[in-house]
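Q: Got a minute? One more chain.
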Amino acid sequence: MITKIRNIFDRTKASISTFTSNPISNLGFLIPIAIFITSFISGIVSYVIFIVQGGYNEQVGLIKRSGIDGIFDGFTSGTVNMFWSGITAKIILGLVGVEFIVILISYFKNRGKRMRIAMIINLAVFAIMIALSTVIFWIAVGELFFSDEQMHQFSSGVVGITITFRTILIAYSVVLLASVICFVVFILITKECRWMVGYTALSIVIINTVVPLLFWLLQNVIPIVGGILIAVILLAVIKFIIWSNSDQPEDIQSKKKELARAQERSENYKASADANFKDARDGLNIIFSAETKREWARDDLKKAEYEGKEIRRLKKDLERLESKYGKQD
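A: Always. Here it is, folded:
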C-alpha cells in the first residue's frame, strides 16, 4: 500500500515537471489526482467546521446526560454532506468534465480516420438524443410551449403514420443505449484512453466512499470509542461469568490425567524423533532414505512442540483450579 502511494506521488511529480512534453497524457493523470485532493481538502474543511460548531462537545454532553444511550445517540452524519453539495460538488463535476474532454482529445489523437469518423457520428447521435430529452423536459415543465396551429402543422406532416408513445420511448431508449455502449467500447479499446478512464473511475469511487467514511469516523470517534469500551467491558463480564460457572472441583483430577497423557505423548514423540535422526545418520537407509527419516523426525518434533503447548495450557488450568479449590491428591 505504501509502495503504491509512493509510486502515485512520484508519478504526480513527474507529470508536473514534464507537463509540456506530453500535456494530454499528463492532464489525464493529474485531473483524477486533483479530484481526490479537492475532496480531501473539502473533508478537512468539513471536519474543522464540525469542531467549531461544537460537534464533539455535543457528543460528550449526550453521554453525560444519557449514559450508554448517549453513546448511540451521539452518532451523527456531521458535516459529511458537504462532499456532495456546494462548491465542492461543482469543482469535482467540472474536473470530471475536463477529464472527459481530455479523454476525447486523446482518442482523436491516437486513433485512425475510420475510428474518428465513427466517434464523431456516435457523438452527434448522442447530442441529438440529449437535445430531444431537453426539449421534452422543457415542454413537460412548461418552459417550452407550442400553439395549436404549430401542433396542427406538425401533425399534418405525419398523417397516416400511427406511432404510439411506447414505441417512441423504446426507440429512443435503444438508440441512446447503443450510443452510450459504442462510446464506452471506443474509449476502452483505445489503450491511451483506457488508463485515464480507470484512474478517473477510481478517484470517483474513492471520493464517494473512502474519503467521506474517513471523516465520518473522525467526527464520530467519541461514540465509536465509547461503544468499543462498552463492548470490551461486556465481553469481559460475560467471560468472567462463564469462567466462574464452568469450573468444578472434580476438574482437577481430570486435568491431571490429561496433563500426564500429554507429557507421555510429548516424551514418546521426542524419543521417536531422536531414534529417526539416529537411524538416518547411522542406519543403512536401504528401504527408506536418510532424508525421509529426517522428515519423520521433524514431524515428530512438531508434534512434540504441539504437546508442549498443550502441557503449558493444562498446567495453567491446574494452577487456576487449585488456587480456586485447593490442591487435591
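A: Residues 247-325 form one domain.
Q: Perfect, thanks.
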